[in-house]
Structures are given as structure tokens and as C-alpha cells.
Amino acid sequence: MKLYFTEFHDEGTGIVFKIKKELFSAKSPYQEIKIFDTYTFGRLLVLDGLVMLTERDEFVYHEMLVHPAFYFKGKAEKVGVIGGGDGGTIREILKYPDVKETYLVEIDRMVVDASKKYLPFTASSLDDRRVKIFFEDGIRFLKERGEDFDLLFVDSSDPVGPAKALYSMEFYKSIKKNLKEDGIVVFQSESPWYHLDIIREQIEGLSKLFSSVKLYLASIPTYPGGFWSFTIATSRELVGERDYIPEGLRYYNKSIRETLFWLPEFVKNVTG
Amino acid sequence: MKLYFTEFHDEGTGIVFKIKKELFSAKSPYQEIKIFDTYTFGRLLVLDGLVMLTERDEFVYHEMLVHPAFYFKGKAEKVGVIGGGDGGTIREILKYPDVKETYLVEIDRMVVDASKKYLPFTASSLDDRRVKIFFEDGIRFLKERGEDFDLLFVDSSDPVGPAKALYSMEFYKSIKKNLKEDGIVVFQSESPWYHLDIIREQIEGLSKLFSSVKLYLASIPTYPGGFWSFTIATSRELVGERDYIPEGLRYYNKSIRETLFWLPEFVKNVTG
What we know:
The structure is a homodimer.
Chain A: E1 3-8, E2 13-27, E3 32-38, E4 43-47, E5 50-54, H1 58-72, E6 78-83, H2 88-93, E7 101-105, H3 109-118, H4 120-123, E8 131-134, H5 138-144, E9 149-155, H6 169-177, E10 179-188, H7 196-207, E11 212-219, E12 227-234, H8 254-258, H9 265-268
Parallel strand pairs in A: 6-7, 6-9, 7-8, 9-10
Antiparallel strand pairs in A: 1-2, 2-3, 3-4, 4-5, 10-12, 11-12
Helix pairs in contact in A: 5-6
């Protein structure tokens, strides 16, 4: 029997994976969670029918979400992650020896548990003693708290359903409240090929609160359009403060950080 | 009825398009040619089951194949294209007023004829008086000729079947023979996610003949991995010689040309 999983990015195009085996399938209180073993991209995590990560290319997403912010912040002791229950973002954060504690705020405990069992390449980092996991709604968490994070990473789902609130002014204000004055926040911010309107709105919203808001891009073959954007925002200038790059990275390097903010014309046009 | 076209990039992953209508289907002496109208990527040209271009994203491929070479060559009067019967590469070349003549060497007349009828957004450029079309095998053409091109673009199919010879030392020598001493050649050179071995071999081969050989990348959502490479080779230094950028481009711009040669670590590792 041949089993295929297809994600349609819009009504006309999609990506298809040939599946070796379904490893996990369950409905949590929040979403449908599936983990497959694929023929050529290793393990595949799918939430509510959307590709979250594959074993073969997750390194790009996690490296590019995390490492640029560390370049611009010479010292980062306390770091927060909203979402990211698979653990990949935490894995990259823990590569910096100055990090003393990281908070992971993941609403869905089942994502963490399934990841620990089936996605050890990302989730094994979650057992590190510097990691504190809060099984809570990230939006409410930041609204109610007053933390002093050096860096915050919003490793969220796509802005449909409840995750829509992750793209609201109210959420951006909560983020600012939980960041140190010279802190930096980075959002995964969707595909320039499919979600330019979301990118534009997010930049406009963040620009009301932060003086430096910039977009950067990376090649992630299993995400819509194969190209993904990240938005970095802070109240100070984005200047490199740290030479150190962890060993063993497979995407991020010096040539990327030196050229980080290039944008194709069709993207530049919407970022103001 | 719902009609889908799927291209598998390897045995495990592919891209799927929902099709509105098949506009053209024929077998030429060289290949099977199909043109579809899709729901979200406009018209789609498929040769032997592989996506050649879509109306929505072809601008990236054609702009990025052509414009960097013009940046590095301040004057380009005579320009050649091997393959590229759809006309997109010629369209970009003709945006430079110093170009006096362009040769298009396309083996398959039926690709040109079908493109003129169904893909006017690329093919209408082929009626320009500066364009000379040769319906010949590009490999033989360059082997038998002794032209003096300022710029050559190898706008070829994937290296399977007869197109394999486009990645041979013999072909690279023919190219050099048909280039001016300070001429530049650019190859489309496949996907870093699927064809790193081909990229490595091509760079190694070209480096035996040219002193400057460099790889650069662009986001093309309908090509395997959504990320494509181009290899530029010349016997002189690659230094910007031309400030002019044609108006109306949608991908290439100053920020791209200034940061052109960044590479992710996993690609840099194979390019020596």
C-alpha cells in the first residue's frame, strides 16, 4: 500500500510526502497531532494537517529563528520561547554558554510528550536543567507576567484559529512588557510567497512599539513556497555584538549574518 | 472533476498543482510538452513531467539567471542562450540597451511555438529584432562554432538523458571557446536540497577552466526544495561594473547584488 500525506498551502498548490509509517496519531484538547516516518525527509510532525517540521530540514528553521538574535545581543541569560513544544528552538538556545535559564511556554503537553518519544533530535534538549516548561497559553502567560527576558522567540503556529491572537497589538504589548529594555524578540513570520499580507501587518504593528523591526528569510523546503520569513524587533539598534557561533550548525554562518537583511524586491516593497 | 499534476522531486517528496485546464499537450521529437492553467500559479509549462516554469514565479528564475552577470560585465553586446525556448531569459537580456544581438539555441522548435501561443509573458520577447533563434542542439552548436559572446546563459533542463552532456568538461570547453576572454557564463545549476552532488561536480569541472567560479541562490517555490542555484564562471575577477538595474524587476535588486554570494553552511561545505 502506498500512503501519501499532502498539505495544500492554498487552494491550488501543495507538498506531498510518501509515508513509510504513521508513528503517532492523537487528538489533544487543542489539535490533531500526527507523526509520520517519511521516505526522504525523515520524521514529520503534523499539527491540524499542517507540516510543523521534518527531521531533514528543521535545522534551518530552528537555527534561523534563534542565532541572529544572539548575534545582536552579546549577553543573554534569560530566554523565553512561546510555542515550540518540539524542543528545536530550545536546542539551539542552549548552545550559548551564557544562557542561564529558558522558559518554554507550550499550551499542549501532548506535543511535548509525543516529541520526546518520537522526535528526540529536537526534544531531547527539553530535559536540560536550564529549561523550565510551562504548559500554559503563551498569550495569557505573557499578559499576566512581568518577566525580564533578554530574548524572546515566538515559535508559533500559523495565524489561524486561536493562534491569530499571536499577531495582535495586545500580544506585542505583552511581549514588550516581558522584555528587558534592550531585549530582542523574534517571530517566525510565515511565507513571503503565501502570506505577504500577514508579514506587512506584523511589521506595521511591531513598528508602533519597537524602533528596529526587520525581516529576514531562509530556505525551508517543506514550508509553503520553500522560503520562510522571520521578524526581529527591538528598541535599540541591530548591531552585531557577539562573534561566537556555535559549532556544528548546518545553515547559519558568518556569510548569512553579514548579509542577513537582503530582501527580494517583491518582499521589500511591502516591508516599508 | 478535479485534476491534479504532481511532480515528484525524488522517491519521497513532490509538489502538487490543482489544474484548471490543459491548454496544450504534444510529443515533439525530443520530449513531451504540456501547458496547463493552474488555480494559483497561472500557466505551467511541463517538459517530460518536470515543471519548467509557472507564470507566477518564473520572474525569479529568469531575473536571477540574467541580471547578476550584467552587473559584473559593464558592456555586453552579444549574448547567447543555450536552451530557454520559453523566451524568459531573452526577455530579461533585452532589458539592457547595450545588447545588440542575442542568439537563442533551442533544440525543440515545438517549445518555442507552444510558448509563443500560450506563454506570451515570456515568449513575446522572441519576436524582438535583436533575437536570432537557432533550432539546433546547443552542445553541437557551441562545439562547431567560434563565437565571441560577452555573456552566455545555460538555461538547460535537468541533467538527465541527453541534457547530461551539459554538465561535461567537453561542454565547458566549448563554452570557453565561444566566450570573449573577459566573457561570463551562467548556468542554472539545480537545487541545493536535491542535487548537491551535481553542484559540486559542476563547480569542480568549471574551476579547471575558469579562475572565478561562484554559486548563488534564489527562492523559486515551484522548483524542487523551493530554492535554486546558479553558477557563474569567468576568467577574471567578479567585480561590479554596472550600476544600472532595469526598472520593474520583482526579485533582483541592489540588496541582492550586494549580498549575492552568501551560502548556507551545508552548501558552502560542498563548494570548496
